[in-house]
Design a protein that fits this description.
Layout lengths: L5 E5 L4 H10 L1 E5 L2 H6 L7 E6 L7 H5 L6 E4 L9 H6 L3 E3 L2 H20 L2 H9 L18 E5 L3 H12 L3 E5 L10 E2 L3 H7 L2 E4 L13 H7 L4 E4 L8 H10 L4 E4 L10 H5 L3 E3 L8 H19 L4
Parallel strand pairs: 1-2, 1-3, 3-4, 4-5, 6-7, 6-9, 7-8, 9-10, 10-11, 11-12
Helix pairs in contact: 1-12, 5-7, 5-12, 8-9
Length: about 300
């Protein structure tokens, strides 16, 4: 197979992704943006950039890559990328969100079920021996409950279809109405939180959504409401969330992401009303293989060559 173009790998990638990149492209790798910038003269002919999406890719690095045509990210996030600078140069930015949407929606669904029915608490109840002397408290039914989704992209839409199977009513908030979406649109997150029983975050991270879920939003969600986050930890004010859980301002939270991973806010770990996961939304063998393939295919499509 003839190699087509030169590609920069920024940060760590899975071995299978690296192998596929080396087969198709002339690959050069650097640990981070600073290391790549220090080698700028060697990168003048780089046409593609492959990254996990966690790396910082700012205007200074883009200036070192005059031939760059595409940034392909293994993941759904682009908050570390200066997308405005990329757009000004017509540099395509591609993610693998379409590949991982189903698995992330599955995790969100699992968190909804686990928090509504307090599955962790019920597990502890049985293990402690308390079942022999008491009955476990009644929990929250999902049937006819209202699910509010912040962000109705691939992940949010996949979650909505799963929630409908439980008989849940669906509402959503986005900056603009999603064409042909069959669900009720809310103009603000506060309006959505006031309406729903479960508020699920499926939106991008970055400055535009930084701590979007504030004390006001949590108060609107109310003492019977649950927060589900499979987006980015930065979308939630974790100090405000910890306080809301402690005071009973909301009923519980299911979290797969945190602002300072792998170190969640200590008060979230200490509270039995939370279910916390180690950012495993897309962590299945099948999906991670498909993500690697999709990342490489985006580069092949843009730069030419055999897929």
């Amino acid at each position: 197979m003839q190699k087509k173009g030169r590609v920069l790998q920024l940060g760590a990638l899975p071995d299978n992704a690296i192998a596929a990149l080396r087969t198709r492209f002339d690959l050069v790798a650097f640990a981070d943006e600073a290391a790549a910038i220090s080698a700028a003269p060697e990168l003048a002919d780089v046409q593609g950039l492959a990254t996990s999406g966690k790396a910082t890719i700012g205007a200074p690095l883009l200036e070192c890559l005059p031939a760059l045509k595409i940034i392909s990210c293994l993941g759904a996030g682009t908050e570390g990328i200066d997308t405005e600078a990329a757009g000004e140069r017509n540099i395509a930015v591609r993610t693998t969100s379409h590949v991982l949407a189903g698995d992330v929606a599955d995790i969100a669904t699992g968190l909804i079920i686990a928090t509504a029915r307090d599955l962790l608490g019920a597990d502890r109840f049985v293990r402690s021996g308390a079942w022999s002397t008491a009955r476990y408290p009644l929990a929250r039914s999902l049937g006819k409950a209202r699910l509010g989704i912040v962000g109705l992209g691939a992940i949010g839409s996949a979650l909505a279809s799963r929630a409908q199977a439980f008989g849940m009513a669906i509402g959503y908030h986005t900056r603009r109405v999603v064409p042909h979406a069959p669900h009720q649109h809310f103009q603000s997150v506060i309006d959505l939180a006031t309406w729903c029983d479960f508020l699920a975050l499926c939106c991008p991270g970055g400055p535009s959504t930084y701590r979007l879920v504030s004390t006001e939003v949590l108060s609107a969600l109310g003492p019977n409401g649950f927060l589900i986050n499979v987006a980015r930890g930065s979308v939630v004010d974790e100090t405000a969330l910890a306080a809301a859980l402690q005071t009973g301002a909301i009923a519980g939270a299911g979290l797969d992401v945190f602002e300072q991973e792998p170190h969640p806010h200590p008060a979230l770990l200490d509270n039995p009303k939370t279910m916390v996961l180690p950012h495993i939304g897309s962590a299945t063998r099948q999906t991670r293989d498909a993500m690697a393939q999709a990342m490489v295919e985006a580069l092949v499509e843009r730069l030419g060559g055999d897929a």
